[in-house]
């Protein structure tokens, strides 16, 4: 099979058989948002792990997909939850991994959170609830949250969240602290409300997407990338009464959505908590 290129605004994806990885099982190619010989940013689809772990030792994961796609080992710089989609950065050289992690700490990620309830705050709100790390030690955590769309019927809002720190589940927990948990959040949300959205709309996964990523690179350049929504969230959001308002605030959400790649998740990826 020959090479062909699929182009859309701000992205270029090469499809077909890559001779560098022809000997490994074929996996769908992830949309490439930006790439150099040292790093790559892809659009992570929902329901795909960033990397395998003790709970999911055989599951499909972005790490293996991107490795096969570029034909070499890659190193994840941050993580996104199993059901979260959007911008995901990998180093293509091990020597770039630590510098990129430091750069990301000095940069900014922008999330779109689809949450329960009518967000009543007119101005941006700063949430500083500390969070425990894996050793049980409280660490500072800070997020700035503002709405870009909201409605009374159905009672929901689309929020723009800027996490200053990168604690585990920080965005999900900070919007919950404002009494607006993400729709579809089984750990920090409301089971009854989540069931209503699943049964009455197409909102059947966590309402969280990493929309933008801006950071100073180790070589002095500035990386600024954006990921359009995937088709599932695009269909839900564009049917909401607040869609026009949100689109005016964040035009990227109106870009042609990414199709969700077809693959069969391993059973262990579905049966264990994945965040």
Keywords:
single chain; 10-stranded mixed β-sheet; alpha+beta; globular; 14 strands; 275 residues; Pseudouridine synthase; disordered C terminus
Structural write-up:
- This protein has 275 residues and is an alpha+beta fold.
- It has one domain: Pseudouridine synthase (2-Layer Sandwich).
- It contains seven helices and 14 strands.
- The protein has helices at residues 62-70, 94-105, 170-177, 191-200, 231-237, 243-249, 267-271, and strands spanning 4-8, 11-15, 32-35, 39-44, 75-76, 85-91, 108-116, 125-127, 131-132, 138-139, 143-152, 155-163, 208-216, 222-226.
- Strands 3, 4, 5, 6, 7, 8, 11, 12, 13 and 14 form a ten-stranded mixed β-sheet that branches. It has a two-stranded antiparallel ribbon with strand order 1-2. It has a two-stranded antiparallel sheet with strand order 9-10.
- It is globular, with a radius of gyration of 18 Å.
- The model is unreliable at 1-24 and 267-275 (pLDDT under 50).
